[in-house]
Amino acid sequence: MTPQEMEARIVRYGDLVPCKTAFIDAHTPGSDRKENFTIIGAGVSESPDQHVHIRETPGFNIGAAGQPPKCLNSLHAHRTAEVFFVLKGRWRFFWGRHGTAGEVVLEEGDIFNVPTGIFRGFENVGTDYGMIMAILGGDDAGGGVIWAPQVIEAAKAHGLVLGANGRLYDTKKGERLPNGVVPMPVLTEDELKAYPEPRTSDVVPACVARYWDLMALADRQPAKVIGAQGRLRDRPGFEVDFLTRGSIPPAAYAMARHEILMPMRGYWRLAWDGGSTVLNPGDTAAIPPGLSHSLIPAMSGEASLYRIVATADPAGATGRLL
Description:
Blueprint: H1 3-7, E1 10-11, E2 35-40, E3 52-54, E4 60-67, E5 72-77, E6 82-88, E7 91-95, E8 102-106, E9 111-114, E10 120-124, E11 130-137, E12 146-147, H2 149-156, E13 160-162, E14 168-170, H3 189-192, H4 200-207, E15 208-209, H5 211-217, E16 223-227, E17 232-233, E18 238-244, E19 259-265, E20 268-272, E21 275-279, E22 284-287, E23 293-297, E24 304-310
């Protein structure tokens, strides 16, 4: 593989293209300053304006959300996995029909395997622009987003209507639903009963792993974060490992499935037969199956990264406590 071919498989943090109209709450006050990024796969954006960096999916999608302080991402649910780790800032995640069932605050490097089937939202509670990286289960990311009814109702007052085809239409710009397309149905009270309201004490121990705990676990070998034998035991169609300076493979290695490398801290030299490059925090590198490669921290100091690999498990529900 040439350096140019490898570079086409790396999405640099500085090259990320945001979409500010990705979802139905894009005009709702309090949520109108957020940015959505689709890094690998089509993601779950509802806007045709969404830029997709790499369309080929390895069995899951990679995305990101960037938000200034006090900006809110509205309550929604997914049919497959949604895993976040905090790249920059301090974030509050909350869940339940009205966002009051439970909550947790995550710091940089922390990871959250959000249980499928609960409404969840998040906000930047830090002092600067923040960024969270996301892993979405399945090649089609579960087919889209399920919004809490109040989110859909609030959006109407600000001109946005979501069609049953999964696309947004801005009535304030004169857009209308196409012939044959009806508005996305709002969940009924009976349907809402199927969405659990778990307590914080149930969710956090089973679904959250703290950065410095993972640093300790990965001092000699990669820490299994999400997987059948992971710190967070789950099988969402992929596994997540955490690597540090002390746990990198001692020699070049290859994997039978796609491998996604996402540096959290430090600079990492990725080398293969054909070239080498440096991965920076926030970069996303898609390593093809069978390619022999090696990883070495390029500088002294703190170094960590998340590694995501597809498994043969179906992209089904996550958060087995529910």
